[in-house]
Amino acid sequence: MSDIERADEAHGQAGTTLAKPGGGVPDRFENPGLPEHRHRMGDTDPAAARRAERQVAFFLLLSIIGSIGIIVSLVGIKYDDSFERISLSTKAIGLSMFVSLFALGVGAVHWAKTLMPDDERIDYRHRQRGTTAERAEAVAILKEGAAEAGLGRRPLIRNTLIGALALFPIPAVFFFRDTGPLPGNSLSTTMWEAGTYLVKDPEGGRIRAADVSIGSVVHVLPEGIEEAESVLNEKAKSAVLLMRLDESELMQKSAEWGVDGTVAYSKICTHMGCPVALYEQQTHHLLCPCHQSTFDLTQDCKVIFGPAKRALPQLPIAVDDEGYLVATDGFDEAVGPSFWERG
User: Fold this and answer.
1) If both were cysteines, with which of 99, 174, 320, 328 could 74 make a disulfide (CB 3.0 to 4.6 Å apart)?
2) Is 292 within a domain?
């Protein structure tokens, strides 16, 4: 008898059953079943259940306070064109939104872990659509689950949950309010007009045409913008990029509206209004970093890639008697994103 046969015989005498093809699972492998259920404190102690109920209600009330805080932050903190007020409003909205969402989530999780049914069950797979009796049974199970959730027996949780869920979407109304009304002609009117000098942003100071070298890009604003009634709004509309390249590379319109290859275009992307801030000197492409809309400076800032649908508006410029760059007119079309009433 070989060593392998002796080993097989020894295993057989020890009671070991080897699995064979088509033989199924050996008898010695038994279904271990589910582990013993561990009851939670809330399942066995009514006082613990009431304490958990109050804790859930506390978090839901905290969520309500957070939702109210969002509304108060949106309505109560008025902008006055100062970055401090904008920063305060943004922080207050963010903090209130965090409290509202976090408390609602913690309350829901704590409710599920301490008060909702905790029994282990096994559901076997069946056909996707059940029979009429099975569907009726499913409805009954859902109703049973709703009853077991304790909403009927726990009015404190039910009422605070209703309050939290009712108030939670209300701040969205105030957010949507800020998206309207439609801009109408407000984007068609900027501080740029004939005779307005170009000044550097942010340091200020008029710009001499001779100081703009080929390949350079200068961030520009209209002179006197700091005296505007709403400085931030005017800066958002009037920001301009000033660039110079070889005049032979420009199309006719760009060349005629520029000075010796120096041209000025709106800095506001025509897709979503992000600042177009990247200039590729070698390709003469302007890139919006938000959604990668790309404009070709040699083709009157035509869109060559990305979601934007129209070219950047050009600002016509000239040189005064002292050599400073000055606008000869405003933009010939609305700056920024397209909208229905854009003329």
Assistant:
1) 174
2) yes
